[in-house]
Amino acid sequence: MNDRTYYQTMAEYNHWMNQKLYAICAEISDEKRKEDLGAFFKSIHGTLNHLLHGDRAWMGRFTGQSFSNPMGHDLYSDFDELRHQRVITDRQILAWTKTLTEDWLKQPFTYTSNIDRQTRVLPTWLLVTQMFNHQTHHRGQLTTLLSQLGYDSGVTDLPWLPSLNAICEE
Question: DSSP state, 71?
Fold first, then answer.
């Protein structure tokens, strides 16, 4: 997949969903957001931190700007700062997807995994797709945690992305 339109759409979806979920999370007390609910990253706050960590790790690789924070440690303990940094990162991802080229996406990409420290060479398009897939996977965990606390995340499906609805109405 070498079409940057796909990645621009996924970046827009990522931004939209993060706005929705952070707005819900802002209604929850800090204590409850940080409570261990048995999730992979323990809490809502831990999952939000992991999502930001993953995006920054991949973006660091893709842009050549090193990101060396260890996985599994919260980047930000303060929710408002975490939310602010999420907005900044989402804007960076949105802008970055506009610069993608078919040639770059076709190239092999060498990276070292933060999980097993193995160096891999895979198609760039696959790894960019993985960045967005990772976001969707963990936001699914987040919506489950929110649901367990009685919060409704609303419709989270891609066809409900507001800009796509605007296209349908034209």
Answer: T
CA 61 to chain centre: 15
Distance CA 163, CA 14 (A): 13
The β-bridge partners of 110 are 121
Paired with 122 in beta bridges are 109
CATH of the domain at 156: 1.20.120.450
The answer, yes or no, to whether residue 169 has pLDDT greater than 80, is: no
Determine the pLDDT at residue 102.
Answer: 94
Mind listing the pLDDT tens digit for each residue in 119-167? Answer: 999 999 999 999 999 999 989 999 999 999 999 998 888 888 898 876 6
pTM of the model: 0.90
Q: Which residues contact 78 (CB under 8 A, 6 or more apart)?
A: none
The residue segments making up the domain with residue 12 are 4-169
At residue 122, the 3 state secondary structure works out as: strand
Q: Which residues pair with residue 123 across a beta bridge? A: 108
Number of separate domains in the chain: 1
* DSSP codes, 35-50: S--SBTTBSHHHHHHH
Residue 39 backbone dihedrals phi, psi, to 5 degrees? -80, 165
CA gap 92, 114 in Å, rounded: 22
Total Cβ atoms within 10 A of residue 88? 11
Report the alpha-carbon distance of residue 132 to residue 13 in Å, rounded: 9
